[in-house]
Design a protein that fits this description.
Strand order of the largest sheet: 1-2
Number of domains: 1
Low-confidence stretches: none
Helix content: over 70%
Structural class: mainly alpha
Shape: elongated
Mean pLDDT: 92
Distance between the termini: 42 Å
Number of helices: 9
Number of strands: 2
Strand content: under 5%
Bound molecules: protoporphyrin IX containing FE
């Protein structure tokens, strides 16, 4: 779980950086999406990414089952010393999965198989207009609201998951654990603010 989780974190960083072109240059963003959907190396990485997501989800289900089997009766005195983030990893993870299905259906499937408008690239050749597709999607309040809620929950998932992954791979030390926890929170906040900025910016800019 730790390794697939950290791998998925690295995907989020790359995805966020790629999306920045949505703010700077629509043509560059369309060229970036064309590159991502046609480059053979990226296609291989896509398979690795799907495998990463699936392994992470299967491991989560197995871990939850093992935890329940180890503690079939709940503690009578559960003093809730653990954080909300850590107690709700299953819930936040499940909602992120639902979000991911909606996200891939609109953008990934929409780009590959949907009725997408055409624009022109820097050389004047036709190119699929992913920029407008994102713009239209985020002009709808309900759609942007789903993104905002899902990304806040993703932030919560990362806030616990990041530091937990380092503990799982054996990096647990009185001296380093507080720093790793702070780094995890900083990472979660940066990813949350980064991704949330797209639906908020595009919704407000089209009011
Ligand atoms: C809110 C901001 C987001 C925007 C504007 C956005 C936009 C896009 C777009 C345009 C695509 C299709 C083209 C491409 O591969 O770049 C895509 C694919 C994808 N997105 Fe997002 N995304 C956002 C957030 C997220 C989040 C939070 C996750 C994960 C939890 C995510 C996971 C994915 C995955 C797995 C793919 C498929 C990647 C692939 O086929 O290589 N996205 N996204």
């Amino acid at each position: 779980m730790a390794l697939t989780g950290l791998f998925l974190c690295s995907f989020l960083v790359i995805h966020l950086i790629g999306n920045v072109a949505l703010f700077t240059d629509p043509v560059q963003f369309n060229e970036y999406t064309r590159f991502m959907s046609s480059n053979p190396l990226i296609r291989i990485m896509e398979i690795v990414l799907v495998a990463g997501f699936l392994t992470h989800i299967i491991d989560a289900v197995l871990l939850t089952k093992a935890n329940k089997a180890a503690q079939p009766v709940k503690y009578a005195m559960d003093n809730k010393k653990s954080s909300w983030y850590s107690r709700n990893m299953g819930l936040t993870g499940s909602i992120i999965l639902v979000f991911l299905i909606i996200h891939l259906q609109s953008f990934w499937y929409g780009y590959k198989f949907g009725a997408i408008e055409m624009a022109v690239d820097t050389s004047g050749a036709p190119i699929k207009d992913m920029y407008t597709m994102v713009l239209v999607a985020f002009s709808q309040l309900w759609y942007s609201a789903i993104y905002v809620v899902a990304i806040l929950l993703l932030g919560s998932h990362l806030n616990h998951g990041f530091q937990s992954a380092f503990q799982s791979i054996g990096l647990r030390h009185k001296k380093y654990t507080p720093t790793i926890k702070k780094a995890g929170t900083a990472f979660a906040v940066a990813i949350t603010l980064g991704f949330i900025s797209f639906p908020i910016y595009f919704y407000i800019s089209q009011l």
